[in-house]
Specification:
Blueprint lengths: L3 E4 L2 E2 L16 H4 L12 H6 L2 E2 L6 E6 L3 H11 L4 E6 L10 H11 L4 E5 L8 H9 L2 E2 L7 H4 L1 H5 L5 E5 H5 L1 H6 L11 H4 L5 E6 L4 H13 L3 E6 L10
Parallel strand pairs: 4-5, 4-6, 6-7, 8-9, 9-10
Antiparallel strand pairs: 1-2, 3-5
InterPro entries: DUF1638
Length: about 240
Amino acid sequence: MPRPSDHGGQARPTDRQGGAATRRRGRAARLSERPAAPAATLSDSALLARGYDSGGPAPLLILACGALGREIAALIRANGWTHARLHCLPAILHNHPDRIVPAAAAALDAIPHERAILAYADCGTGGALARLCAERGIDMLPGAHCYAFYEGVEAFGAGDMRAFYVTDFLVRQFDAFVARPLGLDRHPHLADDYFAGYERLIYQAQTDDPVLTAQARRIAARFGWAFERRLTGYGALATLG
């Protein structure tokens, strides 16, 4: 059975795309021109569809998936990484992996920096992100999937193949990021096709939030899955700065 897919962390037991494709976005260069916004104003809807840029010149550029935006912004605040600029590409690009590399390349070209780190795993790009990093001389996160580094790549690789993994972001944005793109809001019976191979939901919790835990439980119940919560924290993200 497949693991959490390269489509933004959600697992799919088939290759069927399902649902209408989300409108094309990913104009990463334009995001770099927006004025700086405080991390507290980060919204999931913006991170999902438009991305985010913290603004201002900084020697270190952290180029990240929007699904990681809140977590990385929290680490920047907590650790005082004043040398870092956070630029997030829209998380919805995970539903179109072929668009991730062009968007990342455009952002690297548009945003001045001395050093850059790509806060992505392979994410369905078939090694293209790794090749871009090799060409540009920059580092990226390890692993094939976006959320493997929360538990550690080895531990994640040894995990349950019948589990559907979610994170804080995916719990908050499950309908917008998973259900609606798959058409489950209009055709709920399709869940039997998409998720037939899954038996439980594993919630990789970055924060100890009872509200999110309750939401994750409801997602599991919606599909008749067993539920497990793992408080992973930020994992390898804590090493970015």
